Amino acid sequence: MSGPGHAAAVTTFRYRADVLEQLSRHGIRPSSSTRPEVVHELVSDLYRFELRRLRDRLVRKEIPKVGYYDRVVELRRKYPLVSLKPHDFLEQP
Question: What percent of the chain has pLDDT over 70?
Fold first, then answer.
């Protein structure tokens, strides 16, 4: 029951230290109340943004087509968290 005088239950999330380190490299610092789904979506959005920016640079001929694939792979390696499920961001009980 919610209403005046009733506090909402707050779920606390405990992120893995290695995940927090990787998130920090991208300027992402979730609090213990930030849902892992939100963090995963943010990381995925950031990865897609950088991927589109790379593609746009190729289209504008700012970077050569030769080596483009290698740049995509390098970018993918910057975002290993994209391949994890949100619940994998958390410490296991």
Answer: 91
